[in-house]
TrEMBL record:
Transmembrane segments: none annotated. It comes from Populus euphratica. This is Probable plastid-lipid-associated protein 14, chloroplastic. Belongs to the PAP/fibrillin family. Keywords: Plastid, Transit peptide. The gene is LOC105110522. GO terms for molecular function: ATP binding; protein kinase activity. The keyword Transit peptide applies.
Length: 639
């Protein structure tokens, strides 16, 4: 019965007989970054390895001998034991917790130590019998890692699964090898997330992510990479409430030949790549913690393939909005968590999953990120975080789709601030970031709003896209294509059923991109008034900049007289329209459809020659200005 339960991993165990507090350090996670750094920076005294045995030295792990314990003692006192057990030292239980989930080459048992002379007497442990050669190699590696990490016992006991020792028997062939390690509850983190009563909240996500990052940073600070960070390998101990990052059987050293090797550059590259791999795994774990839909293998496959194709992770929100269910009356909880604090969660997720390994965030920087610090620990945001927050808030306002005057004013403020903080003002940067498909979110120009007018054609406008392509890297010419999807309703009134004849209007033009400046003309210095969207937009923004709140964020003491922009010079335009079916109504003509489209769509999207400059661009957002000063806000589309 025990063997069957061990192989298939069925049944559950009570957590009342978890490891006693004598072997664990009880410590609350306060999440303080200062406390974490002080712990991590403390240097311990060196270690001396002494092996206690009978008259003979301790044999290798695969051999039989009288030696019982290999003690790693610290010169300051105390130590950690790598003990050699016998199978008779344990009372094997007839059930195995599902969260222990062994591999195909492992057989997992739960047992209680019954040797009264053992310091683990009456403590529940896990016996992991390693069958294959590769599995035995993992077990021996776990003991090697123990000897490296146990020098700092506080961190080791808090974030590792505590390898106690092994059972080795040469009875058959090269001998069997069973690893003995701590028991930390019935469920892995994956099983906790799959519980029906598990409710992801912002605070729970912060606690789990902070503890996970502290544990991973503990490994990285000791020259080790985990290489196997998955929800299945991580447990939450009910005793000390810490995340246990596994038995570390596949942990890899940063330096193959030691940190003082002559191949220092290669070692640094290896270290950077291994840290980046671990951080990417942490990003996947964070995504599954927050977005429960990603626990579905099919949805997670789409999520992972999006990143594997080289798409920028900063566009994850636009991509996930298309595949995640938003039919709930209260909305998607995960999306709301990531949208909090000016979209800080999306920023952290994009940094963890960055396409280039060199761009991925480290553990310490992630612990200082605003998403994980929250209101208790205020951190000074970087300029990148400020730009991200302005853009994310502008996008969220546009999604409310009720554009009253306060909302329109806020959008104008945010767009102006984004333009002032634009980090990519050179034409070279624009030529690299512009190509792609952009979806129109908002225009600061004329808004139709609710109206009682009776149009000649009932046209429902769908998504409006701007596709930008660069023909060659040798010149600065780029092609713009405006795609306006629409549906022509049947009948004179607006029906509840919005089905009808679908169509698409395309406008093509070629632009030449050069450097330029956008001048802000003050009204008292010119006889003519130049409008930039709202009549008093500049005066209102100047008041904002003088306020204490924005003065800390924007590097301008007063409203600038000009800003660098990407100047757009248009050639001829070409307009084509296609309909999915013939028009049945006599009073609806193609010309009336085009007229209605021009009424509802910003004029710059119909007549591309009215676009005169680009004022802001990054990997996910784009702002273009028209000849009348109105701003068009786009987001990069992933469809």
């Amino acid at each position: 019965m025990a063997a069957t339960a061990a192989i298939y991993g069925v049944g559950f165990c009570s957590v009342s007989d978890i490891l006693s507090t004598k072997k664990l350090i009880k410590r609350r996670v306060n999440g303080s970054i200062i406390g974490v750094r002080s712990i991590c920076s403390r240097r311990e005294v060196g270690t001396v390895v002494r092996c206690s045995s009978s008259s003979k030295a301790v044999a290798p792990l695969e051999s039989e001998g009288d030696g019982r314990t290999c003690v790693i003692e610290e010169e300051g006192g105390g130590g950690g034991d790598v003990m050699r057990f016998k199978m008779s030292d344990f009372k094997v239980l007839d059930r195995v917790s599902i969260g222990l989930g062994g591999r195909a080459d492992e057989v997992v048992f739960e047992a209680i130590v019954k040797d009264s002379n053992s310091p683990l007497h009456n403590i529940k442990v896990v016996l992991r019998k390693l069958v294959s050669t590769q599995a035995k190699r993992r077990g021996m590696r776990a003991i090697e890692v123990l000897k490296k990490l146990v020098r700092r016992k506080l961190m080791y006991h808090s974030y590792s699964m505590q390898v106690y020792g092994y059972i080795s028997s040469p009875s058959s062939g090269r001998g069997s090898f069973t690893l003995v390690h701590g028991y930390h509850g019935s469920f892995s983190l994956r099983h906790w997330l799959q519980q029906s009563d598990w409710l992801p909240t912002l605070e729970i996500t912060r606690i789990l992510m902070r503890d996970l990052l502290i544990g991973v940073n503990y490994l990285h600070s000791h020259g080790l990479a985990h290489t196997e960070l998955r929800l299945e390998n991580v447990h939450i101990s009910p005793v000390d409430r810490h995340i246990k990052v596994g038995i570390l059987g596949n942990a890899a050293d940063f330096y193959e030949d030691g940190p003082n090797s002559s191949t220092l550059d290669n070692n640094m590259d290896r270290r950077q790549m291994m840290i980046a791999f671990d951080m990417r795994c942490v990003g996947f774990m964070m995504a599954k913690m927050v977005l429960r839909e990603l626990m579905d293998p099919l949805i997670f496959l789409k999520f992972k393939s999006f990143l594997m194709k080289g798409n920028d992770p900063s566009c994850l929100r636009e991509f996930l909005l298309q595949i995640l269910s938003r039919n709930s009356p209260s909305g998607n909880v995960g999306l709301q968590i990531l949208d909090r604090n000016w979209g800080a969660g999306w920023n952290l997720l994009s940094l963890l999953l960055a396409t280039k390994p060199s761009k991925r965030i480290s553990c310490l920087d992630a612990l200082r990120h605003p998403f994980l610090c929250g209101p208790r620990w205020r951190v000074a945001p970087s300029m990148d975080i400020i730009r991200w927050g302005l853009g994310s808030t502008a996008v969220r306002i546009t999604e409310e789709y009720i554009y009253k005057q306060p909302q329109r004013n806020r959008l104008s403020y945010f767009i102006e601030l984004m333009e002032m903080l634009n980090a990519h003002s050179r034409p070279k940067n624009w030529l690299e970031l512009l190509p792609g498909k952009w979806r129109l979110l908002y225009c600061t120009g004329r808004q139709i709003g609710l109206t009682l007018r009776q149009p000649s054609a009932r046209v429902l406008i769908g998504d409006v896209y701007l596709t930008i392509n660069r023909a060659s890297k040798l010149n600065t010419s780029i092609s713009f294509t405006s795609d306006i999807g629409f549906t022509v309703m049947n009948g004179r009134d607006w029906p509840h059923d919005k089905s009808g004849i679908t169509g698409k209007l395309e406008v093509n033009s070629v632009f030449r991109l050069t450097s330029g400046r956008r001048l802000y003309l003050k009204e008292e210095k010119t006889s003519e008034k130049l409008s930039f969207g709202q009549p008093n937009n500049q005066d209102s923004l100047a008041q904002k900049l003088s306020a204490k709140k924005w003065g800390k964020l924007v590097p301008y003491k007063e409203f600038p007289s000009s800003l660098p922009v990407a100047k757009l010079v248009s050639a001829d335009i070409e307009v084509t329209m296609s309909l999915g079916d013939n028009l049945d109504q006599n009073d609806v003509t193609p010309s009336s459809i085009v007229h209605e489209i021009r009424v509802q769509v910003p004029p710059e999207m119909f007549d591309l020659s009215r676009l005169v400059c680009g004022t802001y661009v990054d990997s996910r957002l784009l702002v273009l200005r028209g000849v009348n000063g109105s701003a068009l806000l786009f987001t990069r589309s992933m469809c």
